[in-house]
């Protein structure tokens, strides 16, 4: 496989920088610097925080589902999305720092160890959903802020996670980001469409 | 849809290329919303108009960004091929969601290729596209903008 990547590939293919690193292409210049940045201690810390946030969110969904089983139809798909986020973050960490992460595999496995405060679920179902939405919004905002200092590939992942988190809020209780209050028009009447 | 990844003028750096690609994607999106407006039904016409205006605004911001990076903003294509046939309300709304999904990909790549205020602007645009796509579809993508994580082939 040739090491030379066209810019088209570079732009179109997610994770191409990383793929180049893993296939052993000799990288020079900016690309090499970017790869070093993805492996830096700061990036590693950021990935760990991102992973911890996803674990906490997952625990909150589980606590809410345990308290309100009737919400399962609504919440399980959204919980699934959070689980996908966690898997993506763990995979990114593993791909970037495989050798420096002895606990990587165990970390990938677990739903274990729900933090104590995740169990504080409001008794009223709609309040519990709103509480989840607030948690999603808080994490989404944190990721949007954090991507400023992240290396390129991690920034791209964080931006996607932040966008996904804002979408989760919207799907949970219709909440929009605080700085985009009028973003979406009134919901379309979908009855005619189906 | 053609023209999403155009050859990019004289620029050589990745940031300019990514900005041009996002601009081309906004051009395609504006065109696409024209098709959506023709088929999506009278009850969403005001919403489509609003979204078209919003994308024109984002397109103009990207033009400015490209100029600031020293490039000549890429022009819209004369025509675009749609990713699937559109001829009724349901397919028009699918197209609208698909336009936002594809645009999200361009903005995600622009996040990677930029820094500072430009990167934050791209991240917020990605978030807007994810929300608009969810508005049309009633559901979200797990990792909007990251085609390598797309399990349903949304980026055909």
UniProtKB/TrEMBL annotation, chain B:
All copies of the DUF4439 domain together span: 18-148
Which residue windows are transmembrane per the record? Answer: none
UniProt-listed InterPro entries: DUF4439, Ferritin-like, Ferritin-like_SF
Gene3D superfamilies per UniProt: 1.20.1260.10
Q: Highest taxon of the source?
A: Bacteria
Protein name as catalogued: Ferritin-like domain-containing protein
Taxonomic lineage per UniProt? Bacteria, Bacillati, Actinomycetota, Actinomycetes, Kitasatosporales
């Amino acid at each position: 496989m040739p090491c030379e990547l066209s810019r088209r590939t570079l732009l179109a293919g997610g994770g191409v920088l990383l793929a180049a690193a893993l296939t052993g292409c000799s990288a020079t210049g900016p690309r090499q610097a970017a790869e070093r940045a993805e492996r830096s201690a700061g990036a590693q810390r950021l990935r760990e925080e991102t992973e911890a946030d996803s674990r906490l969110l997952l625990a909150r969904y589980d606590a809410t589902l345990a308290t309100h089983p009737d919400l399962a139809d609504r919440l399980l798909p959204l919980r699934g999305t959070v689980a996908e986020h966690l898997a993506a973050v763990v995979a990114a960490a593993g791909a970037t720092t495989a050798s420096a992460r002895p606990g990587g595999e165990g970390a990938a496995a677990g739903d274990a160890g729900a933090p104590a405060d995740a169990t504080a679920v409001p008794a009223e179902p709609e309040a519990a959903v709103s509480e989840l939405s607030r948690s999603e919004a808080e994490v989404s905002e944190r990721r949007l802020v954090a991507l400023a200092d992240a290396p390129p590939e991690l920034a791209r992942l964080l931006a996607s996670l932040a966008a996904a988190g804002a979408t989760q809020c919207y799907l949970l209780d219709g909440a929009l980001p605080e700085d985009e209050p009028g973003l979406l028009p009134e919901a379309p009447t979908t009855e005619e469409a189906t | 849809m053609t023209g999403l990844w155009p050859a990019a003028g004289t620029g050589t750096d990745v940031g300019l290329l990514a900005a041009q690609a996002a601009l081309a994607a906004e051009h395609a999106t504006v065109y696409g919303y024209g098709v959506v407006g023709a088929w999506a039904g009278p009850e969403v016409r005001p919403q489509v108009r609003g979204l078209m205006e919003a994308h024109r605004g984002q397109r103009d911001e990207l033009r400015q960004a490209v100029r600031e990076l020293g490039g000549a903003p890429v022009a819209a294509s004369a025509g675009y091929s749609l990713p699937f046939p559109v001829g009724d309300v349901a397919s028009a709304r699918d197209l609208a969601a698909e336009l936002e999904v594809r645009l999200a990909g361009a903005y995600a790549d622009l996040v990677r290729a930029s820094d500072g205020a430009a990167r934050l602007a791209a991240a917020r645009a990605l978030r807007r596209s994810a929300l608009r796509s969810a508005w049309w579809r009633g559901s979200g993508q797990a990792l909007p903008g990251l085609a390598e994580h797309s399990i349903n082939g949304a980026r055909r």
